[in-house]
Amino acid sequence: MRSMLDRLKWPADAGCTAVPYWVFNNQEVYDLEQEKIYNGPTWNFLAADAELPEKGSFKST
């Protein structure tokens, strides 16, 4: 069976214009994101502390 990373790759010239729906609610994808993005080897800065003045504040796009 192909690995999750292999299943998430598709050729740029395949005409894909959207992420498949199954990606958004797949536990294996979630676990992989946690490992590779949020617990990876580098920090991912999301906001400066001045942008989140109070406990419970959040930043959105």
Automatic annotation (TrEMBL):
<dbReference type="GO" id="GO:0051213">
    <property type="term" value="F:dioxygenase activity"/>
</dbReference>
<dbReference type="InterPro" id="IPR036922">
    <property type="entry name" value="Rieske_2Fe-2S_sf"/>
</dbReference>
<protein>
    <submittedName>
        <fullName>Ring hydroxylating dioxygenase subunit alpha/Rieske (2Fe-2S) protein</fullName>
    </submittedName>
</protein>
<dbReference type="GO" id="GO:0051537">
    <property type="term" value="F:2 iron, 2 sulfur cluster binding"/>
</dbReference>
<keyword id="KW-0560">Oxidoreductase</keyword>
<keyword id="KW-0223">Dioxygenase</keyword>
